[in-house]
Amino acid sequence: MTDVAHMKWWGWGVEGVGFHHEDKPAFAPFVRKAVGLDVSTPPAPVDDFSSVEVPASRLSDDAHTALTAIVGAGYALTDDLERVVHTYGKSIRDLLRLRAHLLPRVPDVVLYPADEAQVELIVSWAVENDAVLIPFGGGSNISGSLEPPVAEERVIASIDMGRLRKLIEIDEYSGLATFQAGVLGPDLEEQLGARGWTMGHYPDSFTHSSLGGWIATRSSGMQSDKYGDIAEITKGLRVVQPGGTLVIRPIPNASTGPSVREAILGSEGRLGIITEATVQVHRLPERREVIGYLFKDWESALVAMHDISTSDAAPSITRVSDARETGFSFATRKASTGISSKVTAGLMTVLEKRGWDLDEICLSFIGYEGSPSHVARQKSMVGSVIRKHGAVTVGKGPGALYDQKKFDTPYLRDFLLDRGAAADVSETAAPWSKLLPLYRNVRAAADGAYAQLGTEGWIMCHLSHSAHSGACLYFTFAFVHDGVDPIAQYDVVKSAIQSAFIESGGTLSHHHAVGTEHAPWLEADISAPGVGLIQGMFDAIDPGKNLNPGKIISSE
Ligand SMILES: Cc1cc2nc3c(=O)[nH]c(=O)nc-3n(C[C@H](O)[C@H](O)[C@H](O)COP(=O)(O)OP(=O)(O)OC[C@H]3O[C@@H](n4cnc5c(N)ncnc54)[C@H](O)[C@@H]3O)c2cc1C
């Protein structure tokens, strides 16, 4: 038993924590209307782990002894729960497989190295013994980036980076912090916060994902408009590879040929094990505000987000939900009484009188950070764009609520799964000129998939992560599955959405990586020579295919 904490083996987050709807009166009617599900149905119990049949470990006693000599007693584990926790990420496909005990291949051993020297010894051991290594951060990915290939005959070791979690140093003058790569989000921000700094990277999975995992999947946090995606935040790296340890020094910009730093970003463990990263950090902002705005409809909201991104304003968050997701947001509010519910009702009456269709309203959150005068100036610049597009300000209340519940929403998928509905997400990025047609095509593709399945289904969307030339559209979809082969049904919907992304000029993923889940669309996204370039790197660095094989390019 190590001191590294993991999520539930069958679902998201911490044991004993889950989503509850009893205090959210609008939730049950909303779900009934959206997908025809009665959420008062008693939840199906999750099996006790003791009933799960886990394939036996293929690790020999000699190999176990050799690995224990590297990481120390108690840090080379072969028990079933450890191995199952390290088999999958947390996509709906993963959750369905876990609940159905579908575990055709699990790692044979889980290793917990304490430092880079141990990681180097593990990599040498794997190359000499022709074993497979799969680095593990928080286990939160949703792209099939962790799972062992089913047909893999060699010994598979999961390398859990959870003991490598120290802040090594801060270069305060340059705003650069060097961390061990296994550090999880809350620990990282706590160590920085204690010294007055922040990295500002807050993915929705923040509580259970790691710095190394963010880098290996090219993650994006909700404040990326100000702090950048992890690709921009990461300045330096140490990566243990079969041939030695790759060192990328933290340089603001370098003209050193094709970017090796960029090659490691998004490499999903295939180009080595990231042991350290130097990241850009910022002084904790004096003021932080997230303001809510209401738009009359999605079309005007999208144009407003475009106009903000091309203006001089530099907010930390630009996010707007389509009408469906706005409805969902309202439905997950706690019962409100007194003044706030009267104000909301009053505002809706005013908007209706102005001719707004309340079913088309879109809720937006814009974040501002910095000195009070900077925040005031940003708000005023954004305010003038917002007003030009006829939107109204609803103040700090909805923004504060969004901030509070953003890390709870991931629990909703397990709640729905307990009651027979599957929900997951697909996200993309495209130039501004293509976003609206892409949105419409994806909605139509999902509806077509639901019609093909003969089931009621739901799809909703928000825009986030704006850039000068375009933005990310993030879709959430849900349907009541047939209970017979929910994964096959999921494949129909997911595939329709992903294909619509590519056909509409979007990418297969803005920040969730390729893994195995999105690999079928890679060639259409980056062309055959692009895939060849990546394959060439994998072959050069890892000729024995010891590092997380089958991810990103699945046709090898
Ligand atoms: C509910 C939910 C919400 C999410 N929200 C977001 C979001 O807002 N933004 C976002 O970007 N993503 C989000 N994700 C996806 C996921 O959290 C990210 O992909 C995250 O970056 C994965 O980090 P991890 O530490 O959990 O990595 P893991 O899942 O453990 O691993 C992911 C991949 O990285 C590799 N890897 C991990 N550590 C290392 C290392 N040290 N060296 C080399 N390779 C390594 C693994 O081998 C694997 O290929 C969400 C997922 C869920 C389930």
3D structure, described in words:
- Among the domains are: 107 residues, 2-Layer Sandwich (Uridine Diphospho-n-acetylenolpyruvylglucosamine Reductase, domain 2); 117 residues, Uridine Diphospho-n-acetylenolpyruvylglucosamine Reductase, domain 3, CATH 3.30.465.10; 120 residues, Alpha-Beta Plaits; 39 residues.
- 37% of the residues lie in helices and 19% in strands.
- Strands 15-12-14-13-17-18-16 form a seven-stranded antiparallel sheet, sandwiched between helices.
- Strand 17 and strand 18 form a beta hairpin.
- Helix 17 runs antiparallel to helix 18.
- The longest helix is centred in the last third of the chain and has 22 residues.
- Flavin-adenine dinucleotide binds next to strand 3, helix 7 and strand 10.
List the topology elements.
Blueprint: H1 27-35, H2 61-71, E1 76-77, H3 80-85, H4 92-99, E2 109-111, H5 116-128, E3 132-136, E4 156-160, E5 167-171, E6 176-180, H6 185-193, E7 197-198, H7 211-217, H8 224-227, H9 230-233, E8 234-241, E9 244-248, H10 260-264, E10 273-280, E11 282-283, E12 287-295, H11 298-309, E13 317-321, H12 323-331, H13 338-353, E14 362-370, H14 372-388, E15 392-395, H15 396-405, H16 412-418, E16 421-431, H17 432-453, E17 457-464, E18 470-480, H18 486-503, H19 522-526, H20 528-541
Parallel strand pairs: 2-4, 3-4
Antiparallel strand pairs: 1-2, 5-6, 6-10, 7-11, 8-9, 8-10, 12-14, 12-15, 13-14, 13-17, 16-18, 17-18
Helix pairs in contact: 17-18
CATH architecture of the domain at 287-406: 2-Layer Sandwich
Helix count equals 20
Unreliable residue stretches: none
Radius of gyration, CA atoms, in whole angstroms: 24 Å
By CATH, the topology of the domain at 287-406 is Alpha-Beta Plaits
- Major sheet: 7 strands, antiparallel
Specify the helix fraction band: 25-40%
CATH class of the domain at 287-406: Alpha Beta
Rounded mean pLDDT score: 95
Question: Which compounds are bound in this model?
Answer: flavin-adenine dinucleotide
What is the terminal separation in angstroms? Answer: 36 Å
Strand content: 15-25%
**Spatial order of the strands forming the largest sheet:** 15-12-14-13-17-18-16
Organism: Labedella gwakjiensis
Cofactor: FAD
Family: Belongs to the FAD-binding oxidoreductase/transferase type 4 family.
GO biological process, one term: lipid biosynthetic process
